[in-house]
Structure formats: C-alpha cells, structure tokens
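W.,

You were right to be curious about this one. When I first looked at the sequence I had no strong expectations either way, so I just let the prediction run and decided to look at it fresh. Below is the sequence, 183 residues in total, followed by the output.
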Amino acid sequence: MKRFSSLLFPLVLSLLLGGTGFWLNRATEIDIETTKLDPAKPQYTMFQVQAQRFDAAGRLQDNLNATQAWQLPESRKIYFSRPDIKVWENGKKQYDLIADKGVYDMDSKQADFTQNVQILKYNEAGQTTAMMNSDYLSIDTANQSAKTLADDVFRNAAAHGESAQPTPKKRVKTVIYDVPKPN
C-alpha cells in the first residue's frame, strides 16, 4: 500500500495542477471583437489644441492653436476649427494665419483654409506691414507656396488692392506640422 500511495500522490498532484492551469487559461480568455468605426464620425477629437516647434537655438519657430482638431477613421486628413498659426524666424514674428476652418492632408502636405482667412506679415520691429483677407487659401507646404481662388483684399504700408479674379500663386512662407505615418 505504501508503494501505491507514493505513486498516487504525484499523479493526483499533476492532474490537479494541469486542471487548474486549463481552468485558468479558459477563465482568462478574452474574445476581442473588432468593430468598424463610422467613417462619418471622428476617430478622435481634441479640444483647445496647442502645438509649438522650436528652432536649433531653442527659440519659438511655429505655434499652432485651434479650438478643435479631429481626424476621421481611415483618413490622412486632420481638420481644424479656428486654426491660428504664428511663424517666427530668428526670434522675430513673421506671419499670422487665422481662419475659421482648416484641413491638412498628411500625404500631399497641403493645407486648405476656408472662411475668414487672414494673413498678417510683420516687419523687424514687429509691426504689421501687410495683410490679406480671403475666403479660401491653399498652402503647399512642400513647395512653400500658397494660392487662392477666392476674392482677396490685400493691404500693405504703401498700397491697397482687391482681387475679384483667381490669382495664380502668391508665395508665402509657412510651416504645417507633420504627423508621422503609422507603421
């Protein structure tokens, strides 16, 4: 009998440990269901957005503020509500760009601004030297060029003009923030 009990104990212990392991494995299994997101509703929304970029000397180079930003599922475009972009060079303010709406396409690196678009250009003393108002402005950040197809009002210290026809291209130096592509 003693010989039989010495063989029985390891066998029972093995069965108990194996059963407990099997039970724990089954009890902790989680079924993950993937749900396709509604393409018309934002994948994420951010409120009171602020992004800053600094130059090599640590000075502020670009500042983006927006009341809201969002991205739709399976889209490479970021939408902004009330974007306000400020650009500095060597610690001096160069441009302000303000609009009611903005869209940035991460693939084409193109930004489109609509409704009440205003660009202000500053001189060395920080005074406004030029201003442009439009209802549409498209900026190609790769080529650092901008174009508008809307009616424009342009003012600078020496002149004032209005454009009621599409103008081919107006060059503007601007920077839009790139978001790395997901792997």
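Here's what jumped out at me. Residues 165-183 have pLDDT under 50 and may be disordered. And, maybe more interesting for your project: The chain has one helix and twelve strands.

Coffee later to discuss?

I.
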